[in-house]
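debug: dumping io for the single-chain case to check the tokenizer round-trip. Nothing else runs in this session.
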Amino acid sequence: MTRAATAVRSFLRSAPGTCVWLLVLLCTTIALHQMSPGSARDFLGRRSTNIHELSVHPVRVLIQSAMWIDSGHWLPYAVLYAVFHAEAERWLGTARWLAVAAGAHIVASFISEGALLWAIRIGQAPQSAVNTLDVGVSYALAGIVGVLTYRIAPPWRYGYLAVVLTLCTTPLIIGRTFTDLGHFISVLTGLAWYPVTRGRPVRNPRGALRAAWRYAPGNRRRDTERSGSSNQRLL
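debug: decoded output
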């Protein structure tokens, strides 16, 4: 078996939930590309976590909306899933990882749509917004990005957290859309799952940085030269 095949097999075994979810997204994305733009919009609208669908079919749309990518671009999500979801699943285990992702998706969907409903009632958003298209996996992903804060050892985690909070609050301040609010809530929801991370191993970037510095080409050459000099002195 080649190294590539071994690596793929190891990845599949270590994060089965992530792999299954990615496979579902690949299939639904291919199916979406076979539809006309109008048909695709109508199709996704019936699977959207908008105000209307959440009030009529909450369970169904919460599940179905997480099986589609509204942008139609699967590859960027495959990379993000490999970086964040797979890491969280290996770290927390499939059940806990899924609980965090689902929790962020559900909480963010209800709070963001609740905020939109309030905006409609006070005249800040049109009545037609009750049928806004809202599908995708970004809320679950943002929640996982949030919980991975605890994967990193202090004080490095605080730098990671600062970057994450900056990335999710800046669009909220500038754009102030219900989707931006959903991403912000998702990150906070992920952070709220701290109890499930207790006792889990953490990573210290210091060791990785030391290894990278040690094995940098210039440093390796100097180490080799020093080793050669020592051998000559011994001889």
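debug: round-trip ok. The chain has twelve helices and no strands.
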